[in-house]
Amino acid sequence: MSALKPTQFIGRIVWLGCVPDRAAALESQSQPGLMTTFAGPEGEAHGGLTRPACSRVKALYKSNTEIRNTRQLTLLSAEDLAATAAAMAWPNLIPRWWGRRW
Fold first, then answer.
1. How much is the pTM?
2. Which of 9, 22, 51, 61 has the fewest CB atoms lying closer than 10 Å?
3. Does an H or E element contain 90, and which?
4. Which pLDDT value is given to residue 102?
């Protein structure tokens, strides 16, 4: 088993968001802060300790079987967003777009 080791990596949070109502839109809304638990961020439409199985896990579970929700939090670095935008020949990628339905 690996041990946790200190590193020289540091980070600064520059944007927080959540999707309060995925039926209305999947674009994240900016938040001044997030309270999180093992169910995910409070107020997040994708949160909850469990969720119904969907097409992503159909090889493992029957549709709508109650399973553990592992989709809790996504962290993206500004450097990765910039590199992805460059690879796509876009000027930039806005954090609230991630998870959005086009």
1. 0.64
2. 9
3. none
4. 45
CA distance 90 to 83: 10
Provide the token pair at 32: 């001044």
Question: Could you give the domains of the chain?
Answer: 17-97 (2.40.33.20)
Position 53 scores a pLDDT of: 93
Rounded CA-CA distance 36/16 in Å is 12
Contacts (Cβ under 8 Å, ≥6 apart) of 26 = 19, 99, 100, 101
Residues 65, 53 contacting (CB under 8 angstroms)? yes
Question: Cβ distance 79 to 92 under 8 Å?
Answer: no
Q: Long-range contacts made by residues 28-32, C-beta under 8 angstroms, separation at least 24?
A: 28/95, 28/96, 28/98, 28/99, 28/100, 29/96, 30/96
Within 8 A by CB and 6+ apart from 98, the residues are 28, 74, 76
Please provide the size of the chain in residues. Answer: 102
What 8-state DSSP symbol labels residue 3? P
Q: Write down the pLDDT at residue 50.
A: 94
